[in-house]
């Protein structure tokens, strides 16, 4: 089981873009992500995320699924259109599981489900970080 | 009873006369009047006939004479006017006058009466124009006094002329001429003047001279004279006599005979020439003498009247007309005829009239009788039948045949009355016969009915109870299934409500765990994060309370602001809408609280908003909006819930509130949501729930009256 200590090792190397429309959740999740990664950028929705996104700027993009203006699915498609190797994780509720296949097809790398299971979160993030660093090396 | 009444009526009515006698009386009066007027008319006619006859004799004669002369003179005078204007005539000497006279020849040829035309001045100088009796040619001569040869010429025609002439005419011809000339010259121009008859020179023909004065300048005047044969005058008069036996004669004013009807002359074996101006008393003319005698004895002033004379058997009628009738008469014209000749055709006419009159009288009497019969017979019959009816005999009588409208009506009315009486009597008899039976039947029926009623009463209660129970059961079932459906929906709503706080809690606790694991935490941070967890837990608790409250079967009415109810509703469904990215626009303001059932209203709001949400999701509306509008409308508080999902199809618009109507399919809808909502608003809250399509969406309008506690 991967612990928080393993994940925090990537703190300096991995740059994160986190997209969430709910302010409270953005604050809470942002705090959690900030605990592990120093380089964290927040975006209120898909449109703003696309404004902030530039290829090579972020190692991992984490996005909520249901958002006004542009949802996680559309964001995924647009980002993958720019950089098909961009690592992308969808943060979604359990009852939205039926979209998993669609997301996979769109090129989403992994999923984190709400309400958050911290172990799963660390595990998924760790896997993603490893994948990114491997690619970089 | 009826007899008594009839007697009373009969006694009361005045004692009139029968139609028959009335008709007869009227007719006889009419007939007598006609008779009298006819007789009077006849008498008047008879008398006027006679006077008219005589008047005609006279006027016809004089008119004819007058017109004959007018015929002669008018063209002559006219011709003078045309051919010899007065200016020119002034210059005529005697010779020229001769030529002037000759101008008349063609005109005078038309008039056989005129035998001579002469012109003369004061001295007697002038010309004469003679018609030659031998060849009817006109001969122009100097005035006869200056022409000695003339007399010799004419005397050849009649040797006795002198003898005859001396009998009557004054010997001094020149004097006579002078007098005649003077009388004419003293008169007005163109006024016809007549002189006394005299014999035409050298002939046995009597003439009268018509003269007119022609003025031709200062102090100079001519006299133009025309001699007319009197036998021709006789001829004219003869024509006017109607009877064969009638006599016409012409005499001088002193009764010297000039001419007389041919039949008289024939009887006397005379000719007109034989008369030779002898007094008519010298001849055997009894009727003429009688007329003259009668005429003189009556001393008539108005000469044109008729006189009757002779014996009763041989009555004559006659008259004497003066000629020419204007100024001093110069001749007498007598006309007489037997009365029987004149009256003959009148008697035939009178007889005819009388005959027709008598026939008319007989016809009238006959008609009266017939008419009376026509009037009386039906009346008599009706009377007979009335009497019969009054004695109780209501059978149909002999039919009354009558074509007089009033009587026909009377008969018809009478018959109708009789029928009505008969019918009612039959009915009465029938009734009395069947009454007891009917009473029995009715009683039986009544008993049966009352038993049935009792039975019905007994069972009715039970049946009503059963029905009510069944209905209640049905309602219960319906309510239950609706409630169950709502529960499902609620669960989904709760899930949405909790999604965010649960996420937050799990994230924050996860974070805390990470802090502990990394051994990197401070007290403040911990305190802050734990507080936020606590807040989230509070929110969760509030949410579940709201749901619980909503599901509380507490149906108590409350005084509550509609705002509060709307907020509670949003508390339940708001997150769900947010999750579906549906924008909720809120615009409401109410003047005060309303007394109502908050839970039920919430249920309605939830239902409508949930429906809107479902439609929006189903139709994938691009920018979904649900608007909640609230306002005061008089005594009503109105909440409008509107979406932008395209509205309800027209064919569904009237059915959306029907029970079990759903467009969502079996799994999603029960078809009871809106039906329940309608029940709640309209039956329970005494409001109104309606829907209409508006601006590309459905708009549900909930109106609720602001009622008092008791009214709800």
3D architecture notes:
The complex is a heterodimer of chains A (137) and B (712). By secondary structure, chain A is of the alpha/beta class. Chain A has one domain: Response regulator (Rossmann fold), CATH 3.40.50.2300. Chain A is built from six helices and five strands. A five-stranded parallel beta sheet of chain A has the order 2-1-3-4-5, sandwiched between helices. In chain A, helix 3 packs parallel to helix 4. Chain B is elongated. About 8% of the residues of chain B have low confidence. By secondary structure, chain B is of the alpha+beta class. In chain B, strands 1, 2, 3, 4, 5, 6 and 7 form a seven-stranded antiparallel beta sheet that branches. In chain B, a hairpin with a 2-residue loop joins strand 16 and strand 17. Chain B has 19 helices and 19 strands. At the A-B interface, helix 2 and helix 6 of A face helix 14 of B.
What is the beta-strand fraction of chain B?
15-25%
CATH superfamily of the domain at 492-705 in chain B: Histidine kinase-like ATPase, C-terminal domain
CATH topology of the domain at 492-705 in chain B: Heat Shock Protein 90
Q: How would the global form of chain A be characterised? A: globular
Query: How many β-strand stretches of chain B?
Result: 19
Please specify the SSE layout and strand pairing.
The complex is a heterodimer of chains A (137) and B (712).
Chain A (H helix, E strand, L loop, with lengths): L3 H4 L7 E5 L3 H14 L2 E5 L2 H7 L7 E5 L7 H11 L4 E7 L6 H7 L3 E5 L3 H19 L1
Parallel strand pairs in A: 1-2, 1-3, 3-4, 4-5
Helix pairs in contact in A: 3-4
Chain B lengths: L1 H11 L6 H65 L2 H4 L4 H9 L2 H4 L5 E7 L5 E6 L6 E5 L5 H8 L5 H8 L4 H14 L6 E2 L3 E2 L6 E10 L5 E9 H9 L8 E6 L4 E4 L1 H7 L3 H4 L10 H13 L8 E4 L4 E9 L7 E8 H52 L14 H114 L4 H29 L6 E3 L1 H18 L3 E6 L5 E3 L1 H22 L5 E9 L2 E8 L6 H4 L19 H12 L3 E7 L2 E9 L7
Parallel strand pairs in B: 14-16
Antiparallel strand pairs in B: 1-2, 1-7, 2-3, 4-6, 5-6, 6-7, 8-9, 8-12, 10-11, 11-12, 13-15, 16-17, 17-19, 18-19
Helix pairs in contact in B: 2-13, 13-14, 14-15, 14-16, 16-17, 17-19
């Amino acid at each position: 089981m991967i612990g928080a200590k393993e994940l925090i090792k990537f703190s300096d190397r991995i740059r994160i873009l986190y997209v969430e429309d709910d302010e409270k959740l953005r604050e809470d999740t942002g705090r959690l992500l900030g605990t592990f990664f120093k380089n964290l950028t927040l975006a209120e929705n898909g449109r703003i995320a696309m404004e902030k996104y530039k290829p090579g700027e972020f190692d991992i993009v984490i996005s909520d699924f249901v958002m006004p203006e542009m949802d996680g699915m559309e964001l995924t498609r647009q980002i993958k259109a720019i950089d098909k190797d961009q690592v992308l994780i969808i943060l979604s509720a359990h009852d939205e599981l039926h979209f998993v296949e669609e997301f996979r097809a769109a090129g989403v790398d992994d999923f984190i489900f709400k309400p958050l299971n911290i172990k799963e979160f660390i595990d998924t993030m760790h896997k993603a970080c490893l994948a990114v660093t491997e690619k970089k090396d | 009873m009826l007899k008594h009444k009839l007697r009373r009526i009969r006694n009361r009515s005045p004692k009139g006369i029968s139609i028959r006698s009335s008709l007869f009386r009227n007719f006889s009066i009419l007939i007598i009047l006609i008779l009298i007027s006819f007789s009077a008319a006849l008498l008047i006619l008879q008398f006027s006939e006679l006077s008219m006859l005589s008047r005609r004799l006279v006027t016809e004669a004089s008119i004819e004479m007058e017109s004959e002369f007018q015929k002669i003179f008018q063209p002559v005078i006219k011709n003078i006017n045309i051919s010899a204007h007065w200016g020119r005539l002034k210059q005529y000497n005697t010779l020229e006058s001769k030529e002037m006279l000759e101008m008349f020849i063609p005109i005078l040829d038309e008039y056989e009466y005129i035998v001579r035309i002469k012109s003369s001045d004061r001295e007697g100088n002038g010309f004469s124009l003679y018609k030659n009796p031998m060849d009817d040619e006109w001969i122009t001569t100097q005035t006869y006094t200056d022409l000695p040869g003339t007399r010799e010429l004419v005397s050849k025609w009649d040797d006795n002329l002198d003898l005859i002439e001396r009998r009557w005419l004054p010997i001094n011809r020149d004097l006579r001429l002078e007098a005649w000339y003077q009388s004419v010259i003293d008169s007005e121009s163109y006024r016809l003047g007549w002189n006394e008859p005299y014999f035409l020179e050298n002939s046995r023909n009597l003439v009268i001279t018509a003269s007119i004065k022609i003025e031709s300048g200062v102090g100079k005047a001519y006299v133009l004279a025309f001699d007319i044969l009197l036998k021709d005058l006789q001829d004219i008069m003869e024509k006017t006599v109607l009877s064969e036996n009638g006599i016409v004669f012409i005499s001088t004013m002193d009764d010297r005979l000039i001419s007389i009807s041919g039949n008289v002359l024939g009887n006397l074996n005379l000719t007109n020439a034989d008369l030779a101006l002898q007094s008519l008393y010298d001849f055997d003319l009894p009727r003429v003498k009688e007329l003259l005698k009668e005429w003189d004895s009556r001393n008539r002033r108005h000469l044109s009247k008729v006189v009757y004379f002779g014996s009763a058997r041989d009555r004559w009628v006659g008259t004497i007309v003066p000629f020419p009738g204007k100024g001093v008469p110069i001749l007498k014209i007598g006309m007489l005829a037997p009365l029987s000749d004149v009256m003959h055709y009148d008697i035939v006419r009178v007889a005819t009239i009388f005959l027709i009159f008598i026939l008319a009288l007989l016809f009238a009497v006959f008609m009266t009788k017939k008419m009376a019969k026509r009037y009386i017979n039906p009346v008599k019959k009706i009377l007979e039948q009335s009497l019969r009816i009054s004695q109780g005999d209501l059978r149909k009588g002999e039919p009354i045949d009558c074509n007089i409208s009033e009587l026909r009506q009377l008969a018809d009315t009478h018959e109708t009355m009789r029928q009505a009486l008969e019918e009612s009597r039959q009915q009465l008899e029938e009734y009395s016969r069947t009454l007891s039976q009917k009473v029995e039947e009715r009683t039986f029926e009544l008993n049966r009915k009352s038993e049935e009623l009792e039975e019905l009463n007994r069972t009715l209660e039970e049946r009503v109870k059963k029905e009510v129970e069944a209905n209640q059961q049905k309602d219960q079932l319906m309510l239950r299934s609706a409630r169950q459906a709502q529960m499902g929906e609620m669960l989904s709503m709760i899930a949405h409500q909790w999604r965010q706080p649960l996420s937050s809690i799990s994230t924050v606790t996860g974070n805390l765990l990470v802090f502990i694991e990394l051994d990197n935490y401070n007290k403040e941070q911990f305190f802050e994060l734990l507080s936020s967890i606590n807040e989230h837990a509070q929110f969760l608790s509030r949410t579940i309370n709201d749901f619980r409250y909503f599901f509380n079967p507490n149906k108590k009415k409350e005084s509550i602001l509609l705002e509060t109810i709307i907020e509670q509703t949003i508390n339940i469904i708001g997150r769900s809408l947010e999750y579906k990215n549906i924008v909720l626009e809120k615009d409401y303001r109410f003047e005060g609280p309303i007394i109502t059932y908050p839970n039920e209203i919430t249920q309605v709001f939830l239902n409508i908003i949930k429906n809107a949400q479902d439609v929006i999701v189903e139709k994938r509306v691009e920018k979904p909006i649900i608007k909640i509008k609230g306002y005061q409308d008089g005594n009503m508080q109105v909440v409008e819930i509107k979406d932008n999902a395209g509205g309800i199809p027209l064919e569904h618009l009237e059915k959306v509130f029907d029970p079990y109507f759903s467009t969502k399919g079996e799994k999603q809808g029960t078809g009871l949501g809106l039906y329940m909502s309608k029940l709640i608003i309209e039956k329970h809250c005494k409001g109104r729930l309606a829907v209409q399509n508006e601006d590309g969406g459905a708009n549900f309008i909930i109106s609720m009256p602001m009622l008092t506690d008791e009214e709800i």
